Amino acid sequence: MKAIKECGYEKPTPIQEQAIPIVLMMRDLIGVAQTGTGKTASFTLPMIEVLSTGKAKARMPRSLVLAPTRELAAQVAENFDLYGKYTGLTKALLVGGSSMNEQLKVLDRGADVLIATPGRLLDLFERGKILLNDIKIVVIDEADRMLDMGFIPDIEKIFSIISPSRQTLLFSATMPDEIKLLSEKFLQNPKQISVAPPASPAMTVEQFVCHCHFKEKDKTLLKIFEKEDIKNAFIFCNRKRDVDKLAVFLKRAGYRAKPLHGDMHQSVRYETLDEFREDKIEFLVCSDVAARGIDIAAVSHVFNYDIPFNADDYVHRIGRTGRAGMKGRAFALISRDDEKPLAAVEKLLGQKIEELVLNKESVSKGGSAKSSDAKSTEEKNEDSKGQGKDDKNRGNKNARKNTRSKPDNRGGTGQSSYKQSSSHRHGPDCDHDSHGGKPQESKTKSRNHGAQNNKNSRHRDDNDENTPKGFGDDVPSFFG
User: Fold this and answer.
1) Residue 382 placed within a domain
2) Mean pLDDT of the region 159-185
3) Which of 356, 360, 361, 300 has the alpha carbon at shortest distance from 332?
4) CA distance 59 to 92
5) Higher pLDDT, 347 or 397
6) Which residue range forms the structural domain that includes residue 146?
7) How many structural domains does the chain have?
8) pTM
9) Helices 100-109/118-126 angle, 10° precision
10) Burial code of 284-305, b = ≥16 C-beta within 10 A, e = fewer?
11) How far apart are the first and last CA of the chain?
């Protein structure tokens, strides 16, 4: 209780109020609650109480918490440190990207609580470095994210190793059918609690969408920054390469921004999160790896540079703001490609998201961008058409000039090349039935007469670039 008071907690959240008594009764539990409602404390606090008696043996932890990401696992570990600092309980954190030898040293001393990602836990188990025979409590945190990341087979394998005489706690922001099947398979007569409809956003978050062309998202984001009073913010992108590019763009624009995604080294990720917590950076540009498990209080804004492909992820993203009863604001930049996932989000929410309309220089309702692009395209087409006419007229004049000035190989002032004669024949000011070269008049007349009488005669069109130059100018009569 002393540690809880030092944290400034006076009363439990709804999920904590319902879950803690059930956990203390040693019953299996399914807890459905949105991000930011205090799920972590709802199982860490009663676990500390249950584990307060007894001592762990070397490499034989007494409880296990499974988390989908390293960030979430580290967040759970911090909660145990915070709430259990006066109890003497020990913990071990097993995640990828960190030294395995250091983690094994902690296990050798004995760990009451083992917090791990499924991959690293199975890796150590298969190497014979850890025993799971003494596990009494198992927690699956963010079970729906486990499903999305493909960890369900690993979880099934872990459950097959652990003794069936255990208490199992499953927490999830949503409850898809696959998670229901998992709970039916591994939980015994669980008590289910739900403090909010699945994937429903917090009421303290104001949501807005801003339509723009996808090439204008960077500039539109800066315009929103100018209008908003931003203390700190998450900016979510769907692709890792966009995370890095946007972070560089914001730095060049004079903002304190850094990227965060799964390809970064673990130490760099922790350092970046610490800088964000300490307000050394104001914008954290991240992928969905950071959408869950990062518990940072007083985040004023969340920006969705891209609408997530999964509608549930939208709720988890905006759940980074508006926590602990504080107000938050969430913005989504919508291009034409984002319309379909936006419709899925609004269907999930059961409501239309309010639209933010910026000035005419930015994009509003998608129409301005579309009409402006269409207008510029039309102007370009008109310009190209006009330029094409001018080029054609210039070409015809040059052709006429060349036919008058250059003698051909046969003598006279006829066609010096096919293109010149062709341009002259088909120019807008020329007679299609004559070539205009007086010395060649009788020859061209007979040639044209033969072409008119024979529908199958070979004629080189200006657009026929595959026909050899000059072919058809002098066609022997036997071709007819």
Assistant:
1) no
2) 90
3) 356
4) 10
5) 347
6) 2-194
7) 3
8) 0.60
9) 70
10) bbbbbbbbbbbbeeebbbbbbb
11) 108
